Amino acid sequence: MADERSTKPGSKRLWITIATILPFILGIPLWLKSTQVYRAALPFKEIDDFQTWASGNSLKLPCRLNIIIASSDELLTKPQFASVASLLAPHLQSLRPRDSPDEDESCQNGFDIQVTYDSKKVCLRSKEGLDSLYWPCGLLDYGFLRAAHLSDDILDNLFWNYAYTRTAKTNESEAGGLYTIILLHKSQFENAESFNTDADDATGTNGQSNQHKAESGSRTVVGKYRHAWIIGDLDFSSFETEVVPRVSEVARTFLGGSRSASGRSKPRNLPLSADGEAILSFSLLNAEPEDWTFDWDFEDLKRKFFQPVVDALKGVARLSLESQVLYYTPKAVKSQWDAAHNAHVVPVKQLPFFVNSNEWHLDSSTAATGRSKLLHLAVYVPGAKEYPLHFLHKNGKLSLTDGFTSPGWGGVVVYNPKNVSLLDGDIHSSAHRITAKDFESVAGVIVAQLRTLFGLPPVLQDDPQRGFFILSSARTGFAEWELDLLLRRRAVSDMAAAASTLTSLSSLVRNLPSMVIKDEIGEQVKSSLVAADAARDHAARGSYLHTAEAACEASSLAEEAFFHPSIMSVLYNPTEHHLAIYTPFFVPVLLHAVLAVIKEVSRYRREWRRFKQKRE
Amino acid sequence: MASKDQTLPSLLVTLLFLLLFSALLSRISGLESVVDEKEKFSEDLLIRPLSDGKVLSHFYFKNYQRTLGSAAHTHVFPKAISQLVSKFHISELELSFTQGRWNYEHWGGLDPIASSNAKPSGVELWALFDVPLNQVDPTWRNLTHALSGLFCASINFLESPEGVASPNLIFESRLKSGADGFVRYGALPREAVCTENLTPWLKLLPCRDKAGIASLLDRPSIYNGHYHSLRVHVKRSGPERAVVLEQTLTIVLQPTQIREGGMKELPHWSLTSLFGRQLGGKCPVAHSSHVLLELEQSLVESVKASADKTGGKVTSGVDIPDNSVFHVSPYPEAVLVESLDSWDVPKFSSVMLEYDLEKYRSDQPLNLAMHWKQKMAWSSVRGPFRVSRFLTGSGNEKGSIAIEMKKNFNVSSENGDSSGGDLLEVTVFQMVPWYVRLYMHTLTARIDGNPVPLRDITTQMLVTPAEDRLHPAVLEMHLKLPRNMVSLSLTVDFDKGFLHIDEHPPDADHGFDLPAAFLSFPTSQTRRLYLNHQAADNKDSSLIQTLNEAGSLYVYTTILLVPLATPDFSMPYNVITFTCTVLALYFGSLLNTLRRRIGEEERLAKAGSGGKLKKAIAKFMEGKSENQKKLIKVSGVILVAAIGVTVSYVLEHFEAL
């Protein structure tokens, strides 16, 4: 058989087979393009940058500390003052909040300290800064200070008045983080003794402290606003040992809050939704309506007790209130009769089982849309069989408050009706109304519970031994410096939350290439990043409210993007499905086409080789 | 006489003093109860023996909130409802969960309870919104989701507009005047009703089922009944837009009848035998709490007739609670007689026996019982028409829907009202899903079997044509019919549509339920006027007050089941495979014809003479005996089989891994 051919092999058949397969190959990019899902461009790089920033540092707000040394006589000379100022600065600069090793709660670069010596003749400032406006000299000429009877409360208001009415009108939102400590010489008060005793009568809470105070000789009070004052023997020689520790203690209190009685660690997150809202749902639980039923005029109670708290917390959280009365809501644990206390008692150990989730239909509220947070505040009215009901501590003492909180859920407080004699008389069909007067103690407990839920100690602890007092705000329950603290905490946690949510979103998006991402999500992510930047800007400028607002916006936008409904419903599109759809068509058709191409190419090459041999 | 004269002035003085004192007291208590009056809760239970031996129990809870306010603070009124009302701007809302079918023939159709509580089975929801038109549909969608969360039901299926109608005519009389807004109506005929719906419903009651009338609700016994309808009705009314929440539960139960010697025992019943529980007092926060036993007019009539027959007493003085036919224990506190208006009491009328639960406690429960002494036949008050709806035609292609009304009695004479003259008004509402494609031109009416032109009997007709996957077809007709007619039938033809493969429910061969049609008779009033002259007006049973109010008559038809052509659900894959085979064949043969040349192939085959494998086998087989050849062939087959088994085993094992 001749292995040569004289003519050039025909390429017609080759071209036909190639033309059959060519559309398939050309169609691949088109197919890829048509099956692509819409994905809005996310700023991955910015998110990563934000995350690296957030993992390294947290949002810190600046704190400014004004220390005023007020004295009528010549206490310090100019060089002495300079040395005092330089003494205070290093002590306070590196201050950390008590019991808190991590830096989250500290301020930006520690305290920015300004020391002012305000005497009748001279007015010295350690640093002529922009803050000089906040404290003009001349406190001692302020008329009220010479009044005969000064209680702590009055003094507190006095300082506040002085700072806010005599200085240039400052923006309330700018006041956050500016603390003032006033050092007063004891001899200023000729009637010092009477002042001390009066103070005890007036403030009431700091009872039994007379003797100790006299011994220690000086007295430190942290006020309701952002002031604290120390009254003592100011003496240059004893300044370092006497005054500096006290000043740093006050500063530490401003920074990290007062010591909590139980020494528990504070919850890191505030019980708020991402956009800073919470609903306080009050429920009055009538455990046994057959015995007696209690009702309340909640509008009245709200006006008297809770509205001031809500207003005070406005900057930190937007709270709304709602209430209901429930019946037949027995508690889940059995109480025992304790003859020693003449009461039915529930050991504190059993309190985790107190809430009866089967019968207490506290109900998630329909008003709570989206992801808003609900805090239950339940007032439990025991039935006649368990009246009076108290909680028993491990040490055998009755609880003073008869209430407990559960972080993130809310609190329960037992209300033992007072007018028992009346109840005994007409036990059946007795509907009662809780008056505001009866409710006062319960309201106090509830406000304390709210403080606990927000991560503050339930009550401010005085330390009469050392002459250290903290005034609590009777009306609002939250002092202004505590609100600053909450704002700082919230800004930190909001920023951290925003960063972590955005990071999770970006990793989710990168891991699921078949997920549709709408433009809306991209917009939300971008505005969240913008808000986070704004928060950092505001923090640098020291504007507390604006920082908190921007941080909150950043976290709520990030949350919104993450929980966008279109992300929630990712199309389930497994590879098996693709296989089942495409194989029946492409395998049999392409098999023929590809085989034909292979055969034709090999045939053409063979023929071409034969032709070449012939030519040679 | 003299002594009387002397005592009179002093008596008067004391009386005057007492009056003053009580006025003062009421002033004080009035001050005390200002907040109480903001919200009021009352509970009632109506029991009525039915003519077929069953017992109707109607639980009625009414909750009233005078001002909605911010809806944030409630005392007795459920917080969930008050927030729902304020959030979705609801003017009126009715939601019902029903199981079973109301027997209009035996259980009555003309009384207010049957008219407002006989509901189509499944879920029915309608709501009137006080919002601008463009917000109605979003509000409805949000409401369905909120309600499905609240009542643990799949009401959220009503979210899609293909099952929701916006009726106009039928609600005209129901909404009365002054209510402006937009109505949406939806029904889920297949929704199953169970305890999981009852529990959230009970949660709306202040005492739940811990005390009061609701404590009778023993789950096994109430779900064993022949009819079970759970209803929530919310309405805002009055100048202050007060919210009235009515919660009703209507159950028809069969008292346990023991067979004695081939004879069924008479249908005796008591609360304990019906519900298995006792009624120990009222809910402490209820304003009023009553148990009512209603004996219908025809029963009273036959009781009186039988008393006459035995001839014992005078006709007027039959003791209703204890007579020759039955005995009711305990003796009622009050007996109310139905009257036509305030003072006119007809000779035979329904009687209501009233028990005030205020007097009963848990150690002294009320066990209302009815003991029959002899068999008694009577019939319930039926509605003017017997309404039925059915499908005609066969096959999966087309059919027609027919609504038929047959007269039960002569309306003009028996019903007493002559306000409508010689014409009878009926409004028909029918909602049909889009896949049942109605041909409206085929709508025909027949009166007594003879075709009648539609324009002669309709005064108003509203037709909303269906739009595929968007709207159901809604047909509303306002008819004026001659009073002397016996039957009316309305028929309309339809084609069955085809659904997408993913639009079929999981149980596609079951068929598709068409929601119940309903008819209203604006001229027939459902009202039972019971006047209680003894009770102080504020402690009157709120159910009786409701019965006293006039309302128009509603009748629901049954649900229809339409079988649609169900596709072969594996069809898409079959189609894919089949088409692809054809295409593969086409490509293969096309390429072969274009490419291969027979002459060249033959030439090559001759030259090549077989493949390498064939040559190798031939070489191997050379010089072997026939037996050896056979053995090699068999072992070859075995080898192939063994390889197949191994491969399949390995594959299986691999999959398991």
From TrEMBL, chain A:
GO CC annotations, alphabetized: endoplasmic reticulum membrane
Gene Ontology BP terms: GPI anchor biosynthetic process
Residue ranges of the region described as Disordered: 196-217
Transmembrane portions of the chain: 14-32, 579-598
Bias-annotated ranges (Polar residues): 196-211
Pfam families in alphabetical order: PIG-S (PF10510)
Pathway the protein acts in: Glycolipid biosynthesis; glycosylphosphatidylinositol-anchor biosynthesis
InterPro entries: PtdIno-glycan_biosynth_class_S
Similarity comment: Belongs to the PIGS family.
Name of this protein: GPI transamidase component PIG-S
Species this protein is from: Riccia sorocarpa
From TrEMBL, chain B:
Keyword terms: Membrane, Signal, Transmembrane, Transmembrane helix
UniProt key word Protease: no
Pfam families: Gpi16
Keyword check for Transmembrane helix: yes
Organism taxonomic ancestry: Eukaryota, Viridiplantae, Streptophyta, Embryophyta, Marchantiophyta
Name of this protein: GPI transamidase component PIG-T
Signal sequence segment: 1-30
TM helices/strands, residue ranges: 573-594, 631-651
Matching InterPro entries: PIG-T
